[in-house]
Amino acid sequence: MSTTRRIRGENRFYNPPPMRKLQQEREKKRLEAEEIEKEKKKAKEILDRKIKVEEKEIKQPEECSTSDCSVPSRVSSTTTTTGTTSSNLGRFLDCTTPIVSTQHLPLTSSKGWRTREPEYRPYFLLNDLWDSFEEWSAYGVGVPLLLNGTDSVVQYYVPYLSGIQLYEDPSRACTTRRRVGEESDGDSPRDMSSDGSNDCRELSQNLYRASLEEKPCIGSSSDESEASSNSPGELVFEYLEGAMPFGREPLTDKISNLSSQFPALRTYRSCDLSPSSWVSVAWYCI
Fold it and tell me: Where is the composition biased (Polar residues) (predicted)?
């Protein structure tokens, strides 16, 4: 026995493998807890700093007298903004609202002539809208939340497409059809769905026409003109998600799959679409 000890030696600090593994797991958990605590502390500092700035903006208009205040309109806007951003919902909307770069299109008269001093109508491409969700779809977007009025946490959310309906503006659609019949130059918004997307477009149009044909058309010409003015436009694309939340793919991946079948989903301009068009985005936490 003494010979064996002499050969192997004794180490009072020797830990068998199971004990060493347990210690490593404890150390790992401790480091993770410290990291989470640091993130909470940092988020709380950011939130406290933001709240202090908002409170300061509220106090400044209150301290100035009515004779010295030159911007009374700013007080109401500040208070309304503060009421929105100081809540969890307000912070969520601030973090998840996409920002898209706009372009400007010269407005024309009713006869198609440009005025001497053209007015510009802002619009954006749908592709730019989808690109604004790309990073959020891959990594999620962090939203600072306040729980129980004291605990600050950062919750991450990922966007998913719930549904979309695109209606073409009736007035622009009529102008486009006239151009195609007269010039056939292929520069109209109707030609955006090239590269094999005509089948998808024709299918959606046929479905929409079928739904219109089922309704009785009874009335005078004035009724018809009123109905056309109240029409949401021509339905050119529709998608409604039917899968359960855990079976869905992020918004960017879904748009990529849909646009491969309907390329105009990326090339449409907002000015070519009717105000009845809509997109529904669901946000799920990770």
Answer: 63-75
**Encoded tokens for 243:** 């899968």
* Cβ contact 159:136 at 8 Å: yes
Identify the three-state secondary structure at position 115: coil
State the Cα–Cα distance between residues 101 and 269, nearest whole angstrom: 12
d(C-alpha 51, C-alpha 110), whole Å:
51
Contact 275, 168 (CB under 8 A): no
pLDDT in tens, 15-51: 667 777 788 888 888 888 888 888 888 777 777 777 7
Domain ranges of the chain: 43-56+85-105+119-285
The three-state secondary structure class of 253 is helix
DSSP letter (8 states) at residue 236: E
Give CA–CA dist 283/243, Å, rounded: 15
Strands 120-123 and 103-106: antiparallel
Place of tokens 């003494």: 2
Tokens of 252: 């960017």
Q: Is the dihedral of CA 128, 129, 134, 139 positive or negative?
A: positive
